[in-house]
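Q: For a teaching handout, I want to show students what a protein-ligand complex looks like in token form. Below are the inputs, and the small molecule is fructose -6-phosphate. Please produce the holo structure.
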Amino acid sequence: MCGIVGYIGSKQASPFLVGGLRRLEYRGYDSAGIATINSPEGIRITRVAGRVDQLDQAVSRRPQVATTGIGHTRWATHGPATEENAHPHVGGHGVLALTHNGVIENYETLKQGLLALGYTFHSATDSEVIAHLMAECLKNISAAPNATTDSVDRYVEAVQQTLVQLRGTYGLAIVFRDRPDMIIAARLGSPLVIGVGRGEHFLASDTSPLVGFTERIVYLADHQLAVLRADSIQVIHRDEGKVRPNVQQLSSQTQEVDLGGFPHYMLKEIYEQPESIRNALRGRLDKDNGTAKFGGLNLTPQQLRSVRRLLLTGCGTSWHSAMVGEYIIEELARLPVEVEYASELRYRNPPLEHDTLIFGITQSGETADTLAALREMKRKGHHTLAICNVIGSSIAQEADGGIYLHAGPEIGVASTKAFTSQLTVLSLLALHFGRLRGLSFEAGQRIIARLEELPELIERTLECHDKVRTVAARFADATNFLYLGRNTNFPSALEGALKLKEISYIHAEGYPAAEMKHGPIALVDEHTPSVFIIPRGVVYDKVLSNLQEVKARGGPVIAIVDHHDPQVARLADEVISVPATEEFLQPIVTAIPMQLLAYEIATLRGCDVDKPRNLAKSVTVE
Ligand code: F6R
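A: Here is the structure, written as tokens, with fructose -6-phosphate included.
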């Protein structure tokens, strides 16, 4: 979702701005722009309703001398993806320009007030309202009898006066026509990180644009505002006044991300799974005690033993992980688990005892609903933990503790390796809780042995790719798909369907296989393929019956199996074989062919798999 960059120093700003926006493309966007201060012209805005490549061309058409600038990729919320709605937005006839991530809820009321004062709006955005409001505050402060011309304080004051009037969330970067030596940044609920250089400073909404430019960073916290100048940073907290910037080292996980010879990030990330799973397991298996260990839960074994219930929350793919986690934890640890969409949890008031432990599951660590749900749970006195991939993200920082996935950057918008790493961590968690409760040492050791085999198992699973290509070619023209499974393979079916629909735009539904006959079976015909996840296990025969029901109605069947069964081979139109493993680890293995199937079908249909339409990598709005 929307990205922000900024540069101030002695070099030309636009190469960093455009390059930084390119690195933020993975978040999903539909328009882009930069604002640079070119003396004596003032603020120059270059915007396109399209890709960063087009912005690059537009910027190159006119020479730039600016050494100060800000940039933005926009994911449309208020108003369509047009050049007028693209950021940066200008306030008060060109005195300032700003970029904004987040949503301002009271923008309509503020806009009415500004219209009455004679301001003209060129966009439908809530962000332009902030720009004019700030210009108005600056005008009033400057008109005061004791105003000191061009003092930094005057600009800070104008920003502060604006912020108190906003209801909603923001990450803001602001440049001023008359102060080309300064950028002001402000944050509430939308991340911003400052890159500290020598004689230059950088700004971005996540660390990816900063890689290679600096290794020293400062995360801005909520209610903080920063004044960036070439040779200094000043951080001011709304309530505490000036605070010392907390300079941190840029994590080594944030390596340079390139395609490594793959045509798409999604495919690269699918193939990275043996390694990402290895990283999720690294250092966490305690063979001597037949358990798993974590460094960051910030709870003693005694406190963990007294937990009576877990509540797992998240959105999209992370919610599917939570659902798989529910099966595994209840099975291995005999501990009741609830799963709730974060977007629902944040506005529900479920009766929960204080011995309920809350886990927020999130790849990005920035999902607005998950962050809000965790805050709400924290407010009610629960210990909140994050299962998160992005180090230093908002959720990682705000939770009381947590477990990092260490999956490395996930650039493809469709989550792949984060999903299997989440399932790996949830399996470790089930083992950990199990061993604190009734699970035997021998069972713990057996689980560890299976977990250790996982990376190699995934390598072998990836060998199904050729078969998946054939299946994709046969069904790429279908307009509806069903994904069916039972037990842990039910949430797997939901995830398989989500992968297909989000990148190929084919309608797909996941269902518990037995539930199909209560309605969805009406969809079955010769044009609607059903993907059956049918590895061996307690419900194998039951799912086989469901498969027969589909075949009896002429529906094509793609079966994902972990052993040769002549009956399935005879019934199914296509059979994809994966290696066998313990039942609770099957969702990790069966995810691979479903990811590959979605990828192959989407590429055959000419879809942009890494940047599917309308989607954003991290959903920072409600
Ligand atoms: C689907 C997908 C989304 C995310 C969801 C939550 O492929 O990527 O459904 O899983 O937006 O995102 P995180 O995990 O970053 O909180």
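A: Two things your students might notice: The first strand starts at residue 3 and ends at 8. The two ends are 12 Å apart (CA to CA).
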